């Protein structure tokens, strides 16, 4: 390989690296450069999270993440929950709740990759209802080694099957 070719390749590689680092520092994306901000973004101190209370036929209830009630990757559940529960389409809300409860009762799933394991009802029972909440958290209140409790919670939908 010629000396000038080596210099050009080296210069191109250095330029590519500098552009990539600048995209990472500025948190911008412009193909083929990416900031890789999936894991390095700074979260706002106040966050909202969907949470689900599941009720079973023995009167027990359990608090679960949406990923424990919806058999998709856990990080995709907030979008699905927002699409359904932030709107005014009552039939979509009822239909999703029915599907989820039926699936939890008849076809529970295990953990796989980024899919959380399904919630399980108390032995000898089945799920009969669910309540969808938005839990508000303030990350500034977190103390190492302690559980972060929600600052507030708001019920956004309640569904219970008729006996």
General description of the model:
By secondary structure, this protein is of the alpha+beta class. It has two domains: 1-41, no CATH class; 46-160, no CATH class. Helix content is 31%, strand content 22%. A four-stranded antiparallel β-sheet has the order 2-1-3-4.
Write a compact overview of the structure shown.
Helix content is 31%, strand content 22%. The chain has 163 residues and is an alpha+beta fold.
How is the biggest beta sheet arranged? 4 strands, antiparallel
Round the Cα radius of gyration to an integer and report it: 23 Å
**What order do the SSEs take from the amino end to the carboxyl end, as H and E?**
HEEHHEE
Extended strand count: 4
CA-CA gap between termini: 79 Å
Number of domains: 2
Instruction: Work out the helix count.
Output: 3
> What general form does the structure show?
elongated
Which structural category fits the helices and strands?
alpha+beta
Average pLDDT works out at: 91
Residue runs with pLDDT of under 50 for 5 or more positions: none
Based on the model shown, name its key terms.
22% strand, single chain, alpha+beta, 4-stranded antiparallel β-sheet, 3 helices, 2 domains, 163 residues, elongated
């Amino acid at each position: 390989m010629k000396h000038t070719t080596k210099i050009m390749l080296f210069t191109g590689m250095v330029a590519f690296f500098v552009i990539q680092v600048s995209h990472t520092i500025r948190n911008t994306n412009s193909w083929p450069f990416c900031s890789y901000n999936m894991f390095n973004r700074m979260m706002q101190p106040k966050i909202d999270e969907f949470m689900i209370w599941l009720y079973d036929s023995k009167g027990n209830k359990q608090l679960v993440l949406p990923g424990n009630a919806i058999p998709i990757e856990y990080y995709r559940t907030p979008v699905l929950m927002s699409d359904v529960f932030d709107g005014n389409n009552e039939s979509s809300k009822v239909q999703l709740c029915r599907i989820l409860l039926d699936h939890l009762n008849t076809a529970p799933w295990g953990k796989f990759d980024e899919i959380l394991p399904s919630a399980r009802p108390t032995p000898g029972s089945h799920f009969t209802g669910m309540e969808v909440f938005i839990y508000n958290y303030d990350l500034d209140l977190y103390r190492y080694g302690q559980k972060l409790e929600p600052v507030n919670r708001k019920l956004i939908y309640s569904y219970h099957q008729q006996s």
